[in-house]
Design goal:
Blueprint (H helix, E strand, L loop, with lengths): L11 H14 L2 E6 L7 E7 L5 E8 L2 E8 H10 L1 H12 L2
Helix pairs in contact: 1-2
Length: 95
């Protein structure tokens, strides 16, 4: 039986691929940030497929912070948070 491979960010090219997929499909990607705020938080990355800008929203209990970023900045953000994102991707595949 062949083992199913789970997508993981292992290089900046992988981060670029994920950013382009989020933008192309115009959907949001969520991942947990356990050490943000009192009880942790959630990061939301969303893009509009017709624009070159995306939104990174950090939410904790009681507060939200939104930042509009370019695709280049989004790739850097995904690369920087790859450990948390990879954990989320593994969790999604296990269900």
């Amino acid at each position: 039986m062949e083992k199913k491979r789970i997508f993981q960010i292992r290089s900046k090219d992988d981060a670029r691929y994920l950013a382009e997929e989020i933008r192309y499909f115009g959907r949001s990607f969520y991942y947990d940030v356990p050490l943000m705020g009192i009880s942790g938080g959630v990061m939301t990355v969303s893009c509009n497929s017709s624009q070159d800008r995306c939104t990174v929203l950090s939410s904790t209990s009681g507060s939200q912070q939104s930042e509009e970023v370019t695709m280049g900045d989004l790739i850097e953000h995904l690369w920087k948070d790859r450990k948390l994102i990879n954990a989320e991707l593994r969790y999604l595949e296990s269900h």
